[in-house]
Amino acid sequence: MKLLKLLFLFAASVAAFAFAAPGPVQEAPDALVKRITQEVMDTARNDKQVKAGDRTRIQQLVEEKILPHVDLQRTVALAVGRHWRETTPEQRQQLTDEFRTMLIRTYAGALSLVGDQQLLYKPARIAPGESDAEVRFEVRQSRGRDPIQVSYRLYRAADGWKVYDVNVLGVWMVETYKSSFSNEIARGGIDGLIRTLAEKNKALAAQAAG
């Protein structure tokens, strides 16, 4: 389970890095993923501060390169499911903020997993004008370990393609969060879920500080 979580974080970090601000003519999402992902992985391999585990530097990369191209509210809304309609604007903002804080820390941890992996992309069939896309690839590892199958889900927003879900080894991230979020909401409502996320963020902060 711990390995699967790390793989999720690695895939999510690579996925979110893969989207730059669109130019006058938008790149196809698969072409964009291939180009930017390679640049980011090269940076993760060669940046001395990142390799040394400098959390300030890593979090800076997350803030500047990842989060602007991830639709966090869409991800959270899908994970919360039908209960999202019951939330107030303030609760939605709190949920998104806590989820954002959690992702910053988990993405930062995932960057340390970037090593000598190679990515092999699957053929993508994305018709012109499509508003949703799925980009699939496998992560080939060294030492004869089995490749890891990864997929990204994206949608076309007004300001370019946005990541909102990732699949590792056949398990979608949103579905995983939906299960745990549903349990927390059943126990303590939306406010209970917010408290749980806040507590987890405090624990992660304490762990990082220690």
Can you offer a commentary on this structure?
The protein has a single domain (2-209), classed as Roll (Nuclear Transport Factor 2, Chain: A). Helix content is 57%, strand content 16%. The protein has seven helices and five strands. Strands 1-2-3-4-5 form a five-stranded antiparallel beta sheet. A hairpin with a 2-residue loop joins strand 4 and strand 5. Helix 5 (72-80) packs across helix 6 and helix 5 (72-80) crosses helix 7 (173-209). The protein starts with a helix and ends with a helix. 30% of the residues are buried. Residues 14-24 have low confidence and may be disordered.
Overview in brief:
57% of the residues lie in helices and 16% in strands. With 210 residues, it is α+β, with helices and mostly antiparallel strands. Strands 1-2-3-4-5 form a five-stranded antiparallel sheet.
- Write the CATH architecture name: Roll
User: Mean pLDDT, as a whole number?
Assistant: 82
As a percent range, the share of helical residues equals 55-70%
How many domains? The number is 1
The CATH topology annotation reads as Nuclear Transport Factor 2, Chain: A
Q: Any idea what the radius of gyration is?
A: 17 Å
Helix and strand arrangement:
Blueprint: H1 2-17, H2 29-46, H3 48-51, H4 55-66, H5 72-80, H6 89-111, E1 118-121, E2 132-140, E3 148-157, E4 160-168, E5 171-172, H7 173-209
Antiparallel strand pairs: 1-2, 2-3, 3-4, 4-5
Helix pairs in contact: 1-6, 4-6, 5-6, 5-7, 6-7
